[in-house]
Design brief:
By secondary structure, this protein is an alpha+beta fold. It has a single domain, classed as CBS-domain, CATH 3.10.580.10. The protein is built from 6 helices and 5 strands. Strand 1, helix 2 and strand 2 form a beta-alpha-beta unit. It starts with a helix and ends with a helix.
């Protein structure tokens, strides 16, 4: 069974963060620079408070006619996302994402954020696992 810890090991543990008091425009610039679709939001004390996603921007700024310069990250970020653990299976994560209609999940050890996984991470890990299974089957058949 593939676990969240496998994904985090492949991705590395680096988190891209932004302060909750930053402008949405600054967050968008950061996400574009890093080629990511979400960014971890921290309060001034470094505590995790949520995620800002491209979906948040589209639905809570663009569609409402707000200004990216004036709107703060804390005003549109996603909060209360389901928390997962490194030991959770990718099947569990797929179920949570599907049921909650979300694309990102924060991963915690105790109460400390240790990573973020996306639906893309789950798809990539599934494809890699299937490719490995295919190679094992080919080896078995040819031996």
């Amino acid at each position: 069974m593939i676990k969240v810890s496998n994904i985090l090991a492949r991705k590395g543990g680096r988190l891209i963060t932004i302060d909750a008091g930053s402008s949405v425009l600054d967050a968008l610039k950061l996400m574009a620079e890093k080629n990511i679709g979400s960014v971890v939001v921290l309060e001034d004390d470094g505590e995790y408070v949520g995620l800002l996603t491209e979906r948040d921007y589209a639905r809570k700024v663009i569609l409402k006619g707000k200004s990216s310069h004036e709107t703060l990250v804390r005003d549109i970020m996603s909060t209360g996302l389901p928390r997962i653990l490194p030991d959770n299976s990718i099947e569990t994560c797929m179920h949570i994402m599907s049921e909650s209609n979300i694309r990102y999940l924060p991963v915690f050890i105790d109460d400390a954020l240790c990573g973020i996984i996306s639906i893309n991470d789950l798809v990539t890990e599934t494809i890699l696992s299937q490719a490995e299974t295919i190679e094992q089957l080919k080896t078995y058949i040819h031996s």
